[in-house]
């Protein structure tokens, strides 16, 4: 099984190897997994110092991913807290209605969202992308399932000590929810970083492009240079690979906990 799983890594190995080659060695057969003539620095300079503003696209992606992740965490955590620890009429019904939105594919809401963004003059702006990204039913559901497992006695003890709902949320619920918050943060960051459809529909100014749209521009410029294209692809996925390698155990544990509780 382990041997077969390595097959899935072959495209990644080929990308890393190709990113360090000169172009004439890319398509030779048999494949040179270790380049005979290294051109890693040259390809790197071409990607980061060419006419295509790769660094700007990188910055835009980081900006969108970080802002979307932080705001989503805050809003989803507050919603999950309300649906688990607060008592109000119609709470379960409201949560059921919220869950119903999970069956609607994002593509089905593109036109209404476009009209709304146009009304609010948020087309062609990062603010519009962040606002559309910051509401996530799935993450509210995930956080709620985790918070259901937090003993209610913590809340009752805090209430006896005079703690209000906001203070209990900030000082009790959030610290106890760190594992699932980390999971949500990582998944949201990856989803936002890889988002292609949203920026493609709502952003027109090339200076606002994230890395996903930037790669398309890069392809138009260097379509016949696979070594440079692979270096650009490798540069684009480095943040995701680092985040996943460092936090993969927490992601899997968080999804498991969130999925089985409640």
TrEMBL record:
Keywords noted in UniProt: Cell membrane, Membrane, Transmembrane, Transmembrane helix, Transport
Location in or out of the cell: Cell membrane
Signal sequence region: none
The keyword Transport is assigned to this record: yes
UniProt GO BP: transmembrane transport
SUPFAM superfamilies: MetI-like (SSF161098)
Family (UniProt): Belongs to the binding-protein-dependent transport system permease family.
PANTHER family linked to this entry: ABC TRANSPORTER PERMEASE PROTEIN MG189-RELATED (PTHR43744:SF12), ABC TRANSPORTER PERMEASE PROTEIN MG189-RELATED-RELATED (PTHR43744)
The name this protein goes by in its record: Carbohydrate ABC transporter permease
The organism of origin for this protein: Paenibacillus roseopurpureus
């Amino acid at each position: 099984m382990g041997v077969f799983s390595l097959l899935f890594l072959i495209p990644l190995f080929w990308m890393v190897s190709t990113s360090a080659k000169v172009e004439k060695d890319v398509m030779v057969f048999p494949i040179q997994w270790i380049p005979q003539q290294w051109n890693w620095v040259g390809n790197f300079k071409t990607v980061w110092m060419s006419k295509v503003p790769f660094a700007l696209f990188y910055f835009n992606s980081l900006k969108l991913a970080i802002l979307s992740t932080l705001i989503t965490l805050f809003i989803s955590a507050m919603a999950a807290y309300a649906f688990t620890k607060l008592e109000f009429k119609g709470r379960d019904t409201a949560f059921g209605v919220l869950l119903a939105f999970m069956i609607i594919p994002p593509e089905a809401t593109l036109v209404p969202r476009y009209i709304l963004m146009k009304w609010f003059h948020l087309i062609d702006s990062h603010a519009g992308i962040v606002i559309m990204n910051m509401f996530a039913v799935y993450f509210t559901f995930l956080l709620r399932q985790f918070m259901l497992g937090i003993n209610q006695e913590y809340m009752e003890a805090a209430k006896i000590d005079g703690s209000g709902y906001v203070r209990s949320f900030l000082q009790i619920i959030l610290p106890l929810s760190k594992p699932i918050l980390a999971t949500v943060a990582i998944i949201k960051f990856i989803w936002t970083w890889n988002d292609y459809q949203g920026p493609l529909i709502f952003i027109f100014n090339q200076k606002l492009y994230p890395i996903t749209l930037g790669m398309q521009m890069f392809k138009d410029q260097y379509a016949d240079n696979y070594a440079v294209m692979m270096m650009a692809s490798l540069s684009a996925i480095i943040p995701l690979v680092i985040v996943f390698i460092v936090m993969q155990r927490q992601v899997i544990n968080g999804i498991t906990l969130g999925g089985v509780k409640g």
